[in-house]
Amino acid sequence: MNNALLRIQGLRTYFYTEEGVVRAADGVDLEIFPGETLGLVGESGCGKTVTAKSILRLIPDPPGRVVEGSVFFEGRDLLKLDRRSLRREIRGNRISMIFQDPMTSLNPVYTVGEQVSEAFRAHRRIGRARALRESVEILGRVGIASPERMVREYPHRYSGGMRQRAMIAMALACRPALLLADEPSTALDVTIQAQILELMKHLREEFQTSILLITHNLGVVAEMADRVAVMYAGQVVEKCGVERFFDGPAHPYATGLLHSFPGMARRAGRLDPIPGSIPDMVRPPEGCRFHPRCRKALPRCTENPPPVTRLEEGHLVRCWLYE
Amino acid sequence: MEKRSMFGIVFRRLVRRKTAVFGLLVFFLMVLVAFLADLIAPYGPNEMLEGMQYRPPSFAHPMGTDMLGRDVLSRVIHGARVSLGVGIVSMVAASLVGIPLGIISGYYRRWVDQILMRVVDLMLAFPVFLLAIMIMVVLSPSASNVAVALTIVYIPRYARLVRGVVLSIRENEYIEAVRALGIRPWRIFLFHILPNCIAPVMVLVTISVGVAIIAEASLSFLGMGTQPPTPSWGSDLREALTTMELNPWLGIFPGLAILLTVLGVNLLGDGLRDAIDPRLKQ
Amino acid sequence: MLRFILRRLLALIPTFVGITLVVFIMIRAIPGDPILTILAEDYSEELAQEYRQKMGLDRPVVVQYLIWLKGMVTGDWGNSLISQEPVIREVAKRLPVTLELLVLALAFAVVFSVPFGVISAVKPNSMPDHTLMTVSMLGISLPEFFLGALLLIVFALKLQWLPATSFVPLSGGLFENLRHMLLPAVTLGSARMAMFTRLIRNSMLEVVRQDYIDTARAKGLSEWLVINKHALKNALVPTVTVIGLQIGYLIGGAIIVESLFALPGIGSLGIDSILQRDYPVVQAFVIVSATGFLLANFAVDIVYTFLDPRIRVR
Question: Where in the sequence is the domain holding B127, given as residue range(s)?
Answer without folding.
Answer: 77-276
